[in-house]
């Protein structure tokens, strides 16, 4: 499969909102996405398309020398096809190219598939945020990759 990855624009917001509602109990609003892509100078968001259909997106904030993943979503019909990995690798490459030294994220402790993906990308467990998710008070696992630039270089050498 040949997926297309591109920066998120205003034109993508309607489709992103549909995916957001499908994937999350507490979805972000239209205004939140609009502010992220139009006003937040620290934010970078990307969409993934398959035959022009939006099947995933992801974003991050770049603060000092750190990239913080804000959200990643993949359409349920396209999971386990490498879309999540593609989004993460895109964000990691972008962050490394902008001289970010490390990357962090929170993930539901029950989301074993995502945790396994992040570990395969060099992330390590760093702590727990108790009752982080408002819909069910589930804990979040904090994960870190302290060498995103170095990790990306290793992947390119072996790719």
Please supply descriptive tags for the structure shown above.
Aminopeptidase; alpha+beta; 159 residues
How would you summarize this macromolecular structure in one to three sentences?
The protein is α+β, with helices and mostly antiparallel strands and 159 residues long. It has 5 helices and 7 strands.
Portion in beta strands? 25-35%
Mean pLDDT: 90
The level-1 CATH class:
Alpha Beta
The domain tally reads: 1
- Give the overall shape: globular
Pattern of helices and strands: EHHEEEHEHEEH
Strand order of the largest sheet: 1-2-3-4-5-7-6
Oligomer: single chain
What's the total count of β strands?
Answer: 7
Largest sheet, strands/sense/barrel = 7 strands, mixed
Unreliable stretches (pLDDT < 50, length at least 5) are none
How would you describe this structure to a colleague?
By secondary structure, the protein is of the alpha+beta class. It has one domain: Gcn5-related N-acetyltransferase (GNAT) (Aminopeptidase, 3-Layer(aba) Sandwich). The protein is built from five helices and seven strands, in the order βααβββαβαββα. The protein has helices spanning 13-23, 30-38, 83-97, 112-120, 148-158; strands at 4-7, 43-50, 53-63, 66-74, 102-108, 124-129, 140-145. Strand 4, helix 3 (83-97) and strand 5 (102-108) form a beta-alpha-beta unit. The radius of gyration is 15 Å and the shape is globular.
SSE topology:
Elements: E1 4-7, H1 13-23, H2 30-38, E2 43-50, E3 53-63, E4 66-74, H3 83-97, E5 102-108, H4 112-120, E6 124-129, E7 140-145, H5 148-158
Parallel strand pairs: 4-5
Antiparallel strand pairs: 1-2, 2-3, 3-4, 5-7, 6-7
